[in-house]
Amino acid sequence: METKPTADGHPVIDPRQFRNVLGQFCTGITVITAFGDDAAPIGFACQSFAALSLDPPLVLFCPTKASRSWAAIEKTGRFCVNILAEEQQQLCARFGSREPDKFAGTSWHTSELKLPVLDDALATIQCTVDSVVDGGDHYIVIGRVQVLSESTDSDRPLLFYRGQYTAIEPEKTVPAPWRADLDHFLTTTTLDTWL
Ligand SMILES: Cc1cc2nc3c(=O)[nH]c(=O)nc-3n(C[C@H](O)[C@H](O)[C@H](O)COP(=O)(O)O)c2cc1C
Q1: Across the strands, what pairs with 158?
Q2: Is ligand 1 within 6 A of the CB of residue 34?
């Protein structure tokens, strides 16, 4: 469908089409946590998480500018990324809501870096805030990795696809062609390699 451009010359993008098209990109889900001013744990479900850089080790996530959790997290200058496992749908729904006590009924502990860490997460990444970039109606928060940890259980990740929770079908999981080189990829940064 053809539409008139915006005043500054860009094409008008229909929000529903934007959501539908971007919803085709399947992601994992994280819960970003920190302690608030009153020492109570805070957090929110966050799909927009990505690895950014190996050297230095950086990750990113994108909170909406309306996020109360981010406003509180920004003040502390540190956060923990908790990568959710397949069976954590209910936990995800709670952290994706505006409930006042999102941690009720959730098992968590305080790390040495003084961050709330969810006990049953697939993996956790504790970071300090490196920089914050404007991203339209969101921010792009870049975090410097301080502590990494992963579950010893062979749990699978919770996935988000076209607005719904889903999971990996194990029988459809196959090694990528470059698997033999994975170690090299993960430990070497050159201009033509990617994490
Ligand atoms: C699966 C899922 C993914 C989400 N991803 C994001 C995200 O990437 N960025 C964001 O700002 N909010 C995201 N949200 C919404 C926030 O979790 C929600 O708006 C937030 O919990 C509101 O509470 P707050 O004001 O305490 O931040 C997501 C929610 C769900 C359920």
Answers
A1: 167
A2: no
What CATH code is assigned to 15-169?
Answer: 2.30.110.10
DSSP, res 153: S
Distance CA 95, CA 85 (A): 14
Q: 72 CA distance to ligand 1 centroid (A)? A: 14
Parallel, antiparallel or unpaired: strands 158-161 and 30-35: unpaired
The reported pTM is: 0.91
| Residue 47 Cβ contacting ligand 1 at under 6 Å | yes
- Summarised one tens digit per residue, pLDDT across range 120-168 is 999 999 999 999 999 999 999 999 999 999 998 878 999 999 999 999 9
Contact by Cβ (8 Å): 128, 146? yes
DSSP bridge pairs for 59 = 51, 143
Tell me if 162 CB under 6 Å of ligand 1.
Answer: no
Strand (E) positions, 55-105? Answer: 58-61, 78-83
Cis check for the bond before 56: say yes or no (omega within 30 of 0): yes
Ligand 1 centroid to residue 184 C-alpha, Å: 35
**pLDDT greater than 80 at residue 98:** yes
Atom of ligand 1 nearest to the CA of 45: 17
